[in-house]
Design goal:
Quinone Oxidoreductase, Chain A, domain 1, 375 residues, single chain, 2 domains, 6-stranded parallel beta sheet, Rossmann fold, alpha/beta, 7-stranded mixed beta sheet
Length: 375
């Protein structure tokens, strides 16, 4: 079938993207789903820094590629062997297809699925196949999703069925922002009730982490960012203290407000400077978690003595340490009961043709979560 899709053909074009146009919206050919695959009509797809990192070259991927990894839609058709989904079902895409058979999957850490990682790195589906074509040439899939398109073929393992009552533009956010942010708090760190928490970096993922932390009834909930607007939003969402990351005494402000630092600090900006700040505002015996993705050449150094003598913990978190088939329905249920007001993360609804301009806003840090809506 012929579909409209946003294709990245060149990595590293200079912003503003409204002028350089790294993403080209044009027709591509989408094959029918193969065995174990599903054709999904995409209804909404969120813009994330992981997409931007491919555009600017911080996370190199094979091109040409249809971008987009945070998406929701309806099942249009299923390939052979798919028996638990049917046309019309509402689904959310997870950007790590979890095979269920490798050592991490069997060990309860499906976010680290090894065949899923190999497929995502190669730009294929879990089967190793590509279902997108541009003329006679294959086009790569982004993290097994390629959601910036009218339709997508995904591995069954990349999809989670959801309640049809959840609006698509909100449902899409559960595939990345919510899983990554909320999961970092509830799964990676397992924050106990009443602990003190700070979140550094208040994009969609960071604010999702803030919402997740709020469910733990923290003794203090600190929000840190460069944007006054995002700090104001964090205050509205429950932050007890907000601190500008650009303030020369930002670390001292957090320590003073929390009696020496927080027990749990989360870095969600994808910046070594932000991680350094998060580590320095973590108190003795505390845990610092990072879910931000910076350039692979960036390095973070810390004092060895401090790590040992203060019994500090530094942890990475990918996909929020989630099992998507378990956690997406759980977080959606928490949203339905008002515990996770994910709808507050949605800042703009856009058309596919506006996607380059939208990435300018994302790069400038002037927006939360923009969502491409397909009517």
């Amino acid at each position: 079938m012929r579909i409209q899709a946003a294709i990245l053909t060149d990595i590293g074009r200079e912003p503003p993207y409204a002028a350089s146009r790294p993403l080209v919206v044009e027709e591509v050919e989408l094959d029918e789903p193969g065995p174990g695959e599903v054709l999904v009509r995409i209804r909404a797809a969120g813009l994330c820094h992981s997409d931007l990192s491919v555009i600017d070259g911080n996370r190199p991927r094979p091109i040409p590629m249809v971008l987009g990894h945070e998406a929701a839609g309806t099942v249009a058709a299923v390939g052979t062997g798919v028996e638990d989904l049917k046309p019309g079902d509402h689904v959310v895409a997870a950007f790590v297809p979890c095979c269920g058979r490798c050592e991490p999957c069997i060990g309860g850490r499906p976010a680290l699925c090894e065949p899923g990682l190999a497929a995502n790195t190669a730009g294929t589906l879990l089967s190793g196949r590509r279902r997108l074509r541009r003329g006679r040439h294959e086009v790569n899939h982004h993290l097994g999703v390629s959601g910036f398109a009218e339709y997508a073929v995904l591995a069954r393992e990349s999809l989670v069925a959801i309640d049809p009552a959840l609006p698509f533009e909100h449902a899409a956010l559960f595939g990345c922002a919510v899983m990554t942010g909320v999961g970092a708090v509830l799964n990676t760190a397992a924050v106990p009730r009443g602990a003190s928490v700070a979140v550094v970096g208040l994009g969609g993922v960071g604010l999702a982490a803030l919402l997740g932390a709020r469910t733990r009834e923290p003794s203090a909930l600190v929000a840190v960012d460069l944007s006054d607007q995002k700090l104001a939003t964090a205050r509205e969402l429950g932050a007890t203290t907000v601190v500008s990351a650009g303030a020369p005494d930002a670390v001292e402000q957090v320590r003073e407000a929390t009696g020496g630092g927080v027990q749990y600090a989360f870095e969600m900006a994808g910046s070594v400077a932000a991680l350094d700040l998060a580590y320095r505002i973590t108190r003795r015996g505390g845990t610092t978690v990072t879910a931000g993705l910076s350039h692979p050449d960036r390095r973070f150094s810390l004092p060895h003595l401090n790590l040992v003598a203060e019994e500090r913990t530094l942890k990475g978190s990918y996909l929020g340490s989630c099992a998507p088939s378990r956690d997406i329905p759980l977080y959606a249920a928490m949203h339905a009961t008002g515990q996770l007001p994910v709808d507050r993360l949605l800042s703009e609804r856009i058309r596919l043709e506006q996607i380059n301009e939208a990435f300018d806003r994302l790069a400038a840090g002037t927006t939360l979560r923009q969502v491409v809506v397909f009517d």
